[in-house]
Amino acid sequence: MSDIRKIAVLTSGGDAPGMNSAVRAVVVSAINSGIEIVGVMRGYEGLIDWETQPLGLADVRNINNQGGTILFTSRSERFLQKKYREQAAKNLRDHDVDALVAIGGDGTLRGAIAFQNEGINTICIPGTIDRDVACSEYTLGFDTAANTAMEAIDRIRDSSVSHGRCSVVEVMGRKRGYIALWAGMATSADAIIIPEKWDGDYDSIIDTIKAKHADGRNSYLVVVAEGVTDAPELAQMILDKTGIESRVSVLGYIQRGGQPTAKDRMYGSLMGAYAVDVLKKDKANRMIAIKNDILIDYDIKEAIDIQNNQIDSFQYELSKLLAE
Ligand code: F6P
């Protein structure tokens, strides 16, 4: 019989479609196991200020299809400081909370590791559109974001073809190129620029476009992950060196919103329920992850050290081969 009587749940960092399914599964699983559950608003910020609400089944009814996070979120600067983490830990203890479930990306995991020193048992669920939590093959929100980007690029391409232009489309991903690679490959982009593989070889992009132009093509698509290169400068370079009119579209926050796909709802549900199971087994400070499509859990300190989440070279090379 587990010692866990009451748990708190929060979402932190950039919101990601599927977070609501994870929250729902945590709440329903906890209640079904006789565990009381409290929702913490605005991520670690709400933990510091004790901005919470008790969660019952009615609070999480019909939220699987909602984008964003019903618990709201933040990137807490204060939580980086020990005095605020102590305050947050005191709040949890004062309210008899035995453990915390934190849903978010890399920053959330780092916050949980620091929190471990304050004696709080934290279970993390990977949720970020970037898919950049290295220990997990999947992070909640990626599938929805990649599909949103793909659909937007399909539309941009329609206009690009009509006008005979080159479209340079910037997608999100901060230090990871997954959204760019998946959305770019799904739309057969002529070039995909991602941080993991970018060697600064602009000439090869220009040469590709020139060769296709000589071959009779009238429109082109370059998908670039944010932060790798300056998209307007690249568009200008394409215009200068090829004479082809070029336009930039920055997809931005539309990639973070919208109804989650079935995959994000399913994985959110699985991970949320798994987190409660981990707590019922009296495990502490675990990171939930997907490996070989199976749910597993790591010690959170071990999880942060895993660095094997590189972009698959075969997929990247294939994206070039299939860009005809
Ligand atoms: O959540 C991930 C992400 O969308 C990144 O792809 C992007 O760089 C960043 O968040 C933007 O963060 P913010 O919401 O703080 O502008």
From TrEMBL:
Residues 6-279 form the Phosphofructokinase domain. Its main location: cytoplasm. Its EC number is 2.7.1.11. It is found in: Cytoplasm. The keyword Nucleotide-binding applies. InterPro entries: ATP_PFK, ATP_PFK_prok-type, Phosphofructokinase_dom, PKF_sf. One of its GO terms (molecular function) is identical protein binding. Keywords: ATP-binding, Cytoplasm, Glycolysis, Kinase, Magnesium, Metal-binding, Nucleotide-binding, Transferase. It comes from the Bacteria. It catalyses: beta-D-fructose 6-phosphate + ATP = beta-D-fructose 1,6-bisphosphate + ADP + H(+). Its cofactor is Mg(2+). Catalyzes the phosphorylation of D-fructose 6-phosphate to fructose 1,6-bisphosphate by ATP, the first committing step of glycolysis. NCBIfam families: PRK03202.1. PANTHER family: ATP-DEPENDENT 6-PHOSPHOFRUCTOKINASE, PHOSPHOFRUCTOKINASE. Belongs to the phosphofructokinase type A (PFKA) family. This is 6-phosphofructokinase. It comes from Coprococcus eutactus.
